[in-house]
Amino acid sequence: MSPFSRDKNRVTVEEAHRRTQGAHAPAVLLDVRERDEWGAGRAPGALHAPLSALAAGAALPQAAQQRPLVVICRSGNRSQQAADLLRTRGVDAVDVKGGMQQWAGAGYPVVGAGGSEGSVA
């Protein structure tokens, strides 16, 4: 099975990691979980914009504007909704199948407040 999604609007955690990690990453990882979930643990370098805020019309964080986005949540449901919403606004966005659960399950780091080890809530 290919690690790449057949659906051009969804990517695997491996592809998300490849696109968003490192100094010269071509895309930004945007976490759309709520504040308490974000606080428990997130991928290093991710930016935060809860789906509830985006749905209410909030702007993207400055560092995410005019950049391709890889959108992640806990399991992939909200990130799919957020990516769909962002695409209607003209943003280049894909979502991560399996979300942070798959991210952590694949062994990628999850950090909490202050850089401590985090967990997926």
Task: Explain how this protein is built.
The protein is of the alpha/beta class and 121 residues long. It has one domain (10-111): 3-Layer(aba) Sandwich (Oxidized Rhodanese, domain 1). The chain has five helices and five strands. It has helices at 13-20, 35-40, 51-55, 77-88, 99-105, and strands at residues 10-11, 28-31, 47-48, 69-72, 93-96. It has a five-stranded parallel β-sheet. Residues 1-5 have low confidence and may be disordered.
Rg over CA atoms, rounded to whole Å, is 13 Å
- What's the CATH architecture name? 3-Layer(aba) Sandwich
The CATH H-level superfamily is Rhodanese-like domain
Largest sheet: 5 strands, parallel
Helix-strand blueprint:
Blueprint: E1 10-11, H1 13-20, E2 28-31, H2 35-40, E3 47-48, H3 51-55, E4 69-72, H4 77-88, E5 93-96, H5 99-105
Parallel strand pairs: 1-5, 2-3, 2-4, 4-5
Key structural traits:
121 residues, alpha/beta, Oxidized Rhodanese, domain 1, five-stranded parallel beta sheet, 13% strand, disordered N terminus
Brief summary:
The protein is globular. The protein has helices spanning 13-20, 35-40, 51-55, 77-88, 99-105; strands at residues 10-11, 28-31, 47-48, 69-72, 93-96. The protein contains five helices and five strands, in the order βαβαβαβαβα.
